[in-house]
Amino acid sequence: MGSEYEESRDIISNLPDELLCHILSFLPTKFAVGTSILSKRWRYLWASVPILDFDDELWLNPSTLVELEERIIMFQNFVDGVLRHSEVSCIKKFRLGYRDNNLDSVYSWICIALERRVQELDLHLLIDWRVELPPMFFICKTLVVVKLSCALFLDIPTTVWLPSLKALHLKSVEYSDDDSIQKLLSGCPVLEELVIEREERDNQWVVNVSNPSLKILRIFFFTDGFAHPYEQEDQDYKVVVDAPNLEYLSITDYLSKDYFVKDLPSLVKAFIDVEQDSEEFEESPHNGGISYHGPIYELLGRISNVKCLSLTGVTLDSLSGTIGDYKLPTFHNMTRLEFLFIGGFNWDFLPNFLHSSPNLEALVIETGYTNELIPEGWLMPLQVPACLVLHLKEIEIRRIVGEDYELEAVEYLLKNAEVLQQMTIDCHESYMDQEFCVCKKLLGLPRGSRSCFVVSSKGIETDPENIKAIFDWIVPTNIHEVANKAFEEIKSKMVNPSILRLPNFEKVVEVACDASHMGIGVVLSQDGHLVAFFSDKLNGAKKKNTPHMILNSMWWCKKLGIGNIISVTRNLFYIRIMKPCDILILKRSLTLDKQNGVVFFSYLFSI
Questions:
Q1: Beta pairing class for 572-577 and 564-569
Q2: From CA 344, how far away is CA 367, in angstroms rounded?
Q3: Phi and psi torsions of 6, nearest 5°
Q4: Any residues with CB less than 8 A from the CB of 225 and at least 6 apart, and which?
Q5: Which residues of 534-549 are buried (b: 16+ CB within 10 A; e: fewer)?
Q6: Would you tell me how many other CB atoms lie within 10 Å of the CB of residue 512?
């Protein structure tokens, strides 16, 4: 027994150095270095780990008896020692979380990482003074990902050349002048992702993002709630975007007054959460009224070719009021529209967007219910939007509370959506017990589409009133514990039936097969939900081939290279199929060998 224990306890230690270093790379460096006490095999292994993750929070534990200043010195000595003894010539990732004001140490650590050709640099500095990056940072050829957070000051030099940089995150960074961001971007020829999280005092009145290779752009700009007397009253914050290959745009901005966005022909998805002061009005020369928030309308006009658009209730509030000279653009390419965290009066804007989205296929409405005033009813459009008649197939309404204006809008959508396939209702957290009742109300409403299903967020479920008698069945008193458990399981199966779902060929498909000398069964599932099934009783001839059926099916899957067999238990095995084309190959190929029992797959995939 001793030899067996001795043999099993060294399984991990006997792994190759490359694999052990890969495992250690998922740990903070403090814990990776801690493995050196395990044995001689592990003593210097940490020195070859290409990922260095330093965070002083792991050292500043108030429960220890060591004084704070001493713990800070211990952390600094630890980082110095690791960098001095590390044998890695090319650092894959260097992360530093630091809260002390020792700027010299921070500067030297960054220099060492850059000298060792670091590929990903992640700095999160919560200190009182701003740290300037060394000049070699701006001409580093190996940097692929850069994340700069908090106490950093960017003084962009004349020459910037980051030829490998693909992702850049700037959070709460202070800039030397108004052109700092654009000067930095001008030296990033392959940049694909840019994230900017701003503060009011970052010295940037105009955020100018101009880069031809950029694909993902996220901008966050919130107020800190404090007045800054040094700011100029006649100057406003602005956002300028010129990225012809941009595919995803997210703007969360409650301070900027203008948005200058050049045409984005490649834009696929956009998230807009912007707010402008409703007290800033512009006189409308045509109708004698007032109009405001023109920049937001112009922003929507610039991204009108987007395929998926998400708008928040704050944005819709900024669009409300007397529109004046401004109107919504036509979103010809948009197939999915999302309204997120909207209030009661935001529902009145729904018809305008439906009319402006002639090819809309999916609509998501998520309410942000509050105890504020609610509208007496919903403003029904005079003319049915074209998308309801021709294209809208899916509607999802989240956090509904069952108010009259909500039900009126849902009734209108159900009645006029002629090609609608499914409407999903999800009640607010405080009204979850009424979710089925709301769905039951909607079931009796007229529908423009005969193939439409109205379901709750839980899926199709049984009416509680119809199964109440089953729940109230009295458990027999003269049965033992095993029988009692079986009785309760039967009740559960009767009130929670397995309901088939339509397959989604964009997701992973799992095939579970079971065979015995009496019969064979196959189940196709996605995300744990049943999609299709097949079962057959084996006669005398089929029984002889039963052992070959499972083996032959597994052999075919391996030969065709479709998915992976993720588990095998006696006669039960699972196959995970990753792509829709795999299913077609599986269907065509496995039907060729009918005599060995693989024919059931043909039936399974002929849905």
A1: antiparallel
A2: 8
A3: -60, -35
A4: none
A5: beeebeeebeeebeeb
A6: 15
State the Cα–Cα distance between residues 374 and 403, nearest whole angstrom. 9
Of 210, 205, 218, nearest to 187 (Cα)?
Answer: 210
pLDDT at 469: 73
Supply φ then ψ for residue 21, to 5 degrees: -65, -35
Return the amino acid letter for 292.
Y
512 bridge partner residues? 523, 574
Cα–Cα distance, 104 to 209 (Å, whole number): 32
Q: How many CB atoms lie within 10 A of CB 364?
A: 17
Collapsed DSSP state (helix, strand, coil) of residue 173: coil
Residue ranges covered by each domain of the chain: 469-497, 509-604
What gap in Å lies between CA 260 and CA 251, rounded to an integer?
13
Angstrom distance (rounded) from CA 412 to CA 127 = 56
Contacts of 318 (CB under 8 A, 6+ apart): 274, 275, 276, 278, 293, 296
CA dihedral 349, 436, 501, 529 (to 10 degrees): 110
Compute the half-sphere exposure of residue 351: CA atoms within 13 Å on the CB side of its CA. Answer: 13
Rounded Cα distance, 143 and 118, in Å: 6
Q: In one letter, which amino acid is 237?
A: Y
Q: Is the pTM of this model over 0.85?
A: no
Q: Which residues of the chain, if any, have pLDDT below 50?
A: 1, 5, 7, 226-230, 279-292, 322-323, 371, 547, 550-551, 554-607
Query: Measured between alpha carbons, how far apart are the two ends of the chain, in Å?
Result: 55
Residue 10: φ, ψ to 5°: -110, 20
Buried b (16+ CB within 10 A) or exposed e, 82-110: bbeebebeebebbbbbbbbeeeeebeebb
Collapsing DSSP to helix, strand or coil, 536 comes out as: strand
- Contact present, 410 and 397 (Cβ < 8 Å): yes
- The string of DSSP letters for 457-470 reads TTBS---TTTSHHH
| Separation CA 370–CA 548 (nearest Å) | 63
Structure tokens at 506: 């964009």
Kind of pairing between the strands at 120-125 and 394-400 = unpaired
Q: Residue 345: phi, psi to the nearest 5?
A: -75, -15
Task: Give pLDDT, residue 487.
Answer: 77
